[in-house]
C-alpha cells in the first residue's frame, strides 16, 4: 500500500464518519414541528439555487466568492478524485493523481484565502474560536493531500507522501469534527436548507416577503420553545456560517441596540441543543444579562432564558439581514414568531407598544384616533368618498400617516396631483381601518387578522381598479399579506403611479429647483417589494442631480421606523435615523427624497446638519406647479 | 413643529358648513371700506388670508344695518340696502376660490357712534346714557325704533345670504346696541325691554329671531359677545354665561364668539384689544367658561399671537375656533406655513397695536412689520424671483435694512448686509429696552432669521465704508443707516441727554429729571416710565395737547396708566425754551404754549426727545459715483413700479427708512419692500 491509496481509504473513512455526524445533526431538527417540504423538487433545485441564488448574494463580496469557490470546489473535487483511486482500473493512475493534485492545489489556495482574511487581524464581523482554527485544518487537509498526490504522480521516494498522509488525515478529521457544531455545519445544513427552504418562492423570482399567517387555533400561539419552530426553521439556523454580513447590515446593531442578527441566529441554533458550543463573534450591543439555558423545551425569550426580550423588540423588520444572508436564513420570520408568543400568549410587549396594540384592537387605529378624522388633513381639498361614488378608478389608501401633519402634506400634494392629472379617485374615509401592519409586526396576529378581514369586507363592497397608497407598509400588507385572507388587489405605490402619469404626459413637469438630491429607499418598498426603479425614474424626470448613498436600492439602510421599533423604543447608543441622515449628508445632497411616512417622520426628527426631507409627491407637485405659467388657470 | 397642531387642523362643521381648520380672523374694521362697500382692496386683503390657508375669515367689523348706525366712522360697510349684495358676491367668490369660508359681522352701534356723519341722524340706545368713548348722548328708543332696527337686522341678514356669504354674526360686544340693552350700565328702561335680565335680553332675542326668519333657518348666524364686562355696573360673568346659554339653548345662535371686557372708554377699549404689555391670550378663561354652558361652537380672539397658544386653546377644549386676527395681519399665510411645516417662517404679531391704532384716528389698518398687508393690489406677500440676479449691498441692519436684504434675497439677488453694531435690529434694539416695549424685538428677530436663512452675507460689527461697498461691485446700494437722536436746537441743548442715552444705558440719571418730548410717540413715554421705575422724580413735558399725542388708542391708556402709577408729573402744553446750569444742577425753562407764561424747573437732568436726524455720510460720498445721483423715482415708488435705473453701468443708490428722513418702523419697512420687490 502506498500513501495515495491510504489517503483514498482515509477519505472514505472520513466520509463515513461525516455521514454519522450528519445523521446526528439532522436528528436534532426532529424536535421541531413538521413542515411540508417538496423534497424531490427541492433536492433537484439545489444546484440552481446554489449556483444562482446563493452565488448572487455571495458575489457581493468578490473575495469571499473566490475564496469559497476555490476551497469548496477544490475540497469536493480533490476528495472525489482521491476516492476514485480505489477503483481498480484507476488505482495508481498518474493522470488521476495529477488531477487530484491540481484540485488540492486549488483548494489550498482557497484555504490560504480563508487564512489571509482572518490573520493577522480578524475583522469584527467574523467569528473566532473554531472559525479561527478552520484555515489551519483546511490548509492541513489540502496541503497534506497535495503532498500525497504529488508523491503519487512523481513517485517520490522517502517519507514525504506518508508525512502528507498524516497531515491530511489530521486536517480531515479535524474538519469532520467541525461538522456537528462547528464551521463545517454550514455545508451540510446549508445544502439541505436550500432543498427544504420554508420560502421556496424566493428561488422562483418572488420577493416572498409576506409573513406567514399564524394558526390562531393552535394550542400555543407563536414560538415559546425551540420545539415550536418548524423543523426546517431549525435547519435554517444551523445553516449559519457566521459570516457577519447580517451584523454589518443591521440598523439596530449599528445604533448600539441589543440586537445582533448573527448572534441571534446562533442563539437560536443553540437553543434546541442541551450544550451548544460557545459563541465567539461580536455580542449584542449593550448585551442584557440572561441565564443562558437552552434545550428543546426550554423557553427561548426572557431574562431567565436564552435571549433577552429587548433583543427581539429592537428589530425594525427591515429585512436587511435576510437580504444579505448567503445561507438564505429568514431572521425576520423567526423574530416575528418569537414576538407572536410574547404578545399573544404573555402580553409581554414593551410599554410603548401596549397602547398602539390595544387601540389597534379596540379603535381599529393604533393611535386611537377616530377613523373619520383620517381625512382631516384634506379639509378644503376635493376628497370624494367611495361610499358616495360607489366606484372609482383609483382608491387612495391613506394609512395612519394621514393623521400626522408631516405625511398630511405629502397626501395633500398627492391628492392635488391626482386632481391635476384628472384621475378618478376616491377614499374609504371613515371606513378605512388600520391595515394592521403595526399589530402584525409586533406579533399581534389576532388583531391583524381581524383588521385584515374587516378591511377586505369593506373593500369588497366597492368597485375600483386599483389601490394607490403613499405608505409602503400599507402597500406591502394590502398587496402581499391580504391575499392569505382572501383579499386580492392590484396595489400601486404613488411613486409608480406618478411615474406612469409623468410618462404618459398627464402630469407636465418643469425642472425642479437646483441642488443635489439623494433618494432613501423605504425597506417595505425596495426590499419587501423590489420597487427601486420607479422612484428613481420619477426623480430623474425632475431634472435634478441625483446621487446615491452607498447603501441604496434593495441594500438600503432602514430609517428605524419599521416593525413597531418607534413604539417599542429600545434604547441604543445612537439613533438609526441619525446614522441614515449622516449617510445622506455624506453624499453632499441638500435634499433627501423619501417615499414613506415612517421614513419622513424618522428622518425629519434628526437635528443638526441635515438634508431637507421631501416626499416624492411634494417634489413632483413643485415641478408640476413650476410647469404652469404664472397666472394661468390651474 | 408646534404641539397640538392636529387640533388646529381638524375641520369644524356648523349646520352643514365645513370650515377646513380651527383658525379664523374675526370681523374688524381695517378702514378699507369705500362708499360703504367692501371693494377690491378690502376683498384682496381677506383673499390673501384665504390663500394663506385660514379656515374662516370674517370681515366687516361693525357693518351697519341701519342709517342711524352710520358706516362712515371707520370707513365701514353699510348693509342697510341691497346695493351691497353684488360686492358680497364678488367677495365670496374671491375667498371661496382658496377654500376658506367668509362671514360678516352685522351691528347697530346704538350710542357707540357719531351723529355728525353722513346722515346726521340722532344716535339711539336703550336709555339716554352717554358713552365716554364716543362722547355721544343717545335718544332712548321707542317701540317704533325697536321694530325698525329688528327689521333692519333681518333685511341685512337676508342680504348676506343673497350675497353668498357663509354666515354672519351680530355684534353684541364692545358696547353695541344689543349689549347696550343687556347691560345694566346703559339700560334703565322700565318697560318689557328693561329690568330683569330676561327683559334686557328681549331686544337681542327679537333681532336674532327676525334674522332666522329672514334667512330660512339653515343659515349660520352667530353672536359676538363679552364673557364679562368687567365693569362695576355692567354685565357680570354670570350674566354673560346666562345670556350665552339661553340664546344657544333656544337655537338663536349657531356659534358664540366671546371677548373679555367692553370698550366704553379709553382704558376699557385698550384692555379689550390687548397690546404687547399683556400676556398672550389673557381672557381665554371667559370663552372656556361659556363653552361649558353651550352646545354650539365657541370662538375667541384676544391676543392669541402664536399658533402654539392657539393650538393649546383648541386642544384643551377652551374654544372650538381660535381667532388670530392681528396674527394674520402680520402674516396672512400663517396656516399654510404650519401645514407646510414652515412654522418657523411665520412672521409673528408682536402686539404693537399699530394696525388698530391707525383706524381710530381715521386711517387704514397697516401692520407695523408687514408692509404688504392691506396693499395686496401692489405689494406681494410672496416675493417672486427676479429674471436676473444682481449684486445688492445694504448698509444698516435695522428693520428697513433687514427687510431690504430679505426682499432682495427672496428676489434671488446676491446680498451683502453691513451692520456696524454687533447685532441686527437698529433702533428697535434701543426701543425694546423700555419695559413692556420689549416685544418689539420680535420684529428684527424674524427679519434677521429670514435674512440668514436666505443666505444673505451678513457682516455684523462692520462699519461700511465707500471702499468696502465698492469692493463688492454692487449693482444696487441701499442705505438704511437710520438716524441718530439729537438734543435739539434750544439754547443750552448741549446740556441735555436724549431718550436714547437713557435707554441705551449711556447715562444713568438719578434724582429729578425733566423729560421733554417733541415727538409724541412711544419713545419719551416709555423712557419716562423707565426713569421713574429707576427711582427718578420725573416730570414729562410736551408742547402737544396731551402726553403721547401720536400714540394710538390701544397704547396710550397703557402708557398713561403706567406713568400715573409711577408718579410721573404730566405737563402738556409746555415748550422747552432754554437749559442752563445752576450750581451742579440744571434749570429748564418752559413756556406754556397757551398762555406764554414761563416757568422754571431746577432738575438734576434734562432728557429730550426730538426724534432722529438721518445718518448721511455714505450717501453724500457715494452719490457722485451712482448712476442715479442718489435719486429715487417717487412716482414709481408710490405706484409700486420698478425704478428707472438698472445699475447697468455702475450702481444705483437709494436711501430708505430713517436714513431718508426719521419716521417709524412701518415707514422703513415699506420703503424697503416697495423699492426691493422690483429690483
Automatic annotation (TrEMBL), chain A:
Annotated transmembrane regions: 6-26, 69-89, 95-114, 134-154, 160-180
Pfam families: CCG, DUF3483, Fer4_8
Gene3D superfamilies hit by this protein: Alpha-helical ferredoxin
Domain 4Fe-4S ferredoxin-type: 231-261, 303-334
Keyword Membrane: yes
Keyword Cytoplasm: no
Keywords: 4Fe-4S, Iron, Iron-sulfur, Membrane, Metal-binding, Oxidoreductase, Transmembrane, Transmembrane helix
InterPro entries: 4Fe4S_Fe-S-bd (IPR017896), 4Fe4S_Fe_S_CS (IPR017900), Csal_0991-like_N (IPR021872), Cys_rich_dom (IPR004017), HdrC_iron-sulfur_subunit (IPR051460), Helical_ferredxn (IPR009051)
Protein name: (Fe-S)-binding protein
Organism encoding this protein: Ancylobacter oerskovii
TrEMBL record, chain B:
InterPro entries tied to this protein: Aldolase_TIM, FAD/NAD-bd_sf, NADH:flavin_oxidoreductase, OxRdtase_FMN_N
Cofactor(s) required for function per UniProt: FMN; [4Fe-4S] cluster
Keyword terms: Flavoprotein, FMN, Iron, Iron-sulfur, Metal-binding, Oxidoreductase
Domain called NADH:flavin oxidoreductase/NADH oxidase N-terminal: residue spans: 8-344
Signal sequence range: none
Family named by the database record: In the N-terminal section; belongs to the NADH:flavin oxidoreductase/NADH oxidase family.
Record's protein name: NAD(P)-binding protein
